[in-house]
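Predict the holo structure. Ligand: nicotinamide-adenine-dinucleotide.
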Amino acid sequence: MLKGKTALVTGSTSGIGLGIALALARDGANVMLNGFGDVDSAKRAVAERGVRVSYHGADMSKPAEIEAMVRACEQEFGALDILVNNAGIQHVAKVEDFPPERWDAIIAINLSSAFHTTRLALPGMKKRNWGRIVNVASTHGLVASAEKSAYVASKHGIVGFTKSVALETAITGVTCNAICPGWVLTPLVQKQVDARAQQAGVSESEAKRQLLQEKQPSLQFTTPEQLGALAVFLCSPAGDNVRGVAWNVDGGWAAQ
Ligand code: NAD
């Protein structure tokens, strides 16, 4: 279905971004990956789906590097059709203890980077009258938790940004939507599991159980594969008129 389209997925060397990149590739899209860490395994996994794969190491806190990445994608593949703004980081601390440089980094990577990729990708999408922008927000884009002020602010911000872009593109073939996962067991959440296990002196599996029980009524982690399938749906013709939504995949977290 997505054969001939090109997807740029930020923060796609692990976790949710990689899950979405793999799902789009399975549907035929060529992929430009981005992020740090084990780039080769991610590239190999996407290439196994029989599509063209490329990588750009832009640091998503640096607007000049983001611009270079978008230009490189357009040059290498001829177009950027599907933009998945996924790169994100977390820091957990009370507001009065929150390091200002961590606040700035979270806002830059989780929120401002999506503004930069979107402003750069939109002219080409509008010209071709087809495009998909999928912003990976969070249940924390809809409700808050203590000690995550920067993350919650960035995720509420990206949900608002999604709605504005959806309105500005409403009469075009470009759509913009947000996905709001609850707990997904990725390296980002594993750090929080480990911290909880250490602080409470409990096992890793008990820490996971407590984490889910506090917030996620299904008591199950959402998976990167489930989020990939939702991204594919948003890119399908059935998603043509889905615009400006923030779609929870959170086991009932925000329903409480
Ligand atoms: P992860 O740590 O597995 O992946 C984060 C990705 O972002 C990695 O590829 C990393 O290299 C990349 N990244 C980090 N800083 C970067 C930077 N400055 N420049 C470029 N790339 C950078 O985390 P994840 O859980 O897969 O998170 C992905 C997204 O999903 C984030 O936006 C996160 O907020 C969101 N999310 C995660 C959960 C969850 O439970 N894991 C829930 C809701 C939302």
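Residues 11-17, 34-37, 59-61, 86-89, 109-110, 136, 138, 181, 183-184, 186-189 surround nicotinamide-adenine-dinucleotide (CB under 6 Å). The radius of gyration is 18 Å.
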